[in-house]
Model the fold of this input.
Amino acid sequence: MWRSLRGAGAVSRRGAAVPEGRCCRRRSHVWDWHQALASAAGLRGGNAGANRTCATVTMPEVSTDHLDEQQVQLLAEMCILIDENDNKIGADTKKNCHLNENIDKGLLHRAFSVFLFNTENKLLLQQRSSAKITFPDCFTNTCCSHPLSHPLELEENNAIGVRRAAQRRLKAELGIPMEQVTPEEIQYLTRIHYKAKSDGIWGEHEIDYILFVQKDVSLNPDPNEIQSHCYVTQKELKQLLDKASRDEVKITPWFKLIAETFLFKWWDNLHNLNKFIDHEKIHRM
Done:
C-alpha cells in the first residue's frame, strides 16, 4: 500500500517570494567547464586536474520566484563536475547543473541512485513531491541525488564519497537514521550515463552510481521531498511500469532505464550481487 504524506502538510510548487538576486543573475568564479571538458578528453584520474582552468563564467538568467522556497535553497549546493569518463573537472551549483541550456553545452555532473530492499526482498519506491524542480510527482527508486563538492564526498576510493552522500540523502529524504544505513552497508555496483529533459528549462545529465542496500529501516519521509512511498514486489513494480507505458503514471527517466535493463536481474540475485560489480565500465544509456 502506498503511504501518502499529503496529510503531513501540503507542498506547493510555489514557495515564498525569493529575494531579488537569489539564485538568479549569477556570474560566479567557477571552473571553466567548457575548457575543462575539452582538456580532460582522453585523460584519466588525477591527470585531469593539471589541465583545469579557472575563469569567470556567465550563466543563464532563470527566475526561480515561482518555485518552492525550500527546493530553491538547495539549488545553491555545489555539485561535482565531471567529464564523460567520470574524472573530476570542477564544481558548480545544483541550479547550473540542471539547466538545459548548460546541459546542451555538455555540462555533466556526478549522481547516485539507491535501491533499498527490506528483508522480504521488496524494493522501496518513492513518489517525488510536487515541489521538486525536476521530475515532480514522478515515481522512482528509493533515493536519487548528488554527492557534493566537499572533501568527504569527493573521496573516490571504492566510491566512498558517493556512499557517504547516499547515507546523508537517505536521512534527508526518507528520515532513515544514519546509524541504520552506514556507507559500509551500501554496495556500489556500476555506473550509468544518461541525459533527460524534465521541461523546457530543467533537466538531468549525470553519471549515476548504482547503489544497493538490503536492510529493514525506520522511515520518516520529508513531505517536501516525497509525497508517497511503498515497498513493492517484482510483480507490483512491473504493473507500475506497465501503467507508466500507458501514461497513467509518471516515472523518472533514470529509473525507467535501469528497470528496463538491469534491475530485475540484480533483484533476482540480491544475495549474490558481487558477480555484477563493474567499476570499470560506464553504461551509456
